[in-house]
Amino acid sequence: MATHSNKPARRILLTGKTGQIGHELLPFLDAFGDVRAPDSTELDLARPDALRTYAMDWRPQLIVNAAAYTAVDRAEEERDRAMAVNGTAPSVLAACAAELGAALVHYSTDYVFDGAKHGFYKESDEPNPMNVYGITKATGDAAIQKAGIPHLIFRTSWVYGLRGHNFLLTLQRLAREQDEVRVVNDQIGSPTWSRLVAQTTANVLDQTLNERQPEDMSGIEKASGIYNLTCTGSTSWYGFAQAILESLPEDERPRLKPIPTSEYPTPAPRPANSVLAVEKLRAQFGILLPDWQGALTFCLNNQTASDPIA
């Protein structure tokens, strides 16, 4: 990615700066303009009027929506809030972008699919979510697509990182607390490091934004659409857990027991297969993320004692 010696006079609105992807995005976006990134105490995405007022006051040329309601199981009980954040808020941001002539970058999920397909899910496959979280995310995606604005929707999966709540940090905690950990081995996906999602976003923006004309969104307009953005390769949650535990000293590893989904019931059903095809991202932007195992190694090498473990 090119470096910008002089920051463009481009106003950027970033939502979700404390989340896994948003936290990683913030330093990258700073190279592209003046970033305003309210946290949840400054801006509640479940309040559409407040969201619209905030966006129209700032009048950004680029909106990056990294905020989401991601508590998959809790969403089954908190459907209204999940829909407000995942469905309504993207629609509001898309409407603001339309009024302002702005572009919108948004993040979607593999959980918009039911997992019944054999092989990779392509961007053109019809969503058929099997839980409330997936339904609300698919609603937001559709609203953006219908808005007629320059947009990039990055659909990712099994996101993890060194902060927040995710499988990597949960497993590391369980490894300290338990002698045996049971992990589902019949759900398949592509673990994806949040930093790679942020880096890829910056790479795409570097290719599509006009450095000399901050208001020019024609590059994003030409490339508008959904792009699957995951690491390559696939594994089960059990395989992911094995790879994580291999980074620990042998005497600190708990016993790992593979179990079927039927032995680990959850309020929200999960797709058995959520592996996404990534050819479109490579064809359009020349970007191919590393395999999930290599990315995990890079991530773990970045982990220090000072990093939060939740």
Automatic annotation (TrEMBL):
Name of this chain's protein: dTDP-4-dehydrorhamnose reductase
Organism: Nitrospina watsonii
CDD domains assigned: dTDP_HR_like_SDR_e (cd05254)
Lineage top rank: taxon: Bacteria
Gene responsible for this protein: rfbD
Similarity remark: Belongs to the dTDP-4-dehydrorhamnose reductase family.
Domain RmlD-like substrate binding: 11-302
InterPro entries named among the record's database cross-references: dTDP_dehydrorham_reduct, NAD(P)-bd_dom_sf, RmlD-like-bd
UniProt key word Oxidoreductase: yes
Catalytic reaction equation(s): dTDP-beta-L-rhamnose + NADP(+) = dTDP-4-dehydro-beta-L-rhamnose + NADPH + H(+)
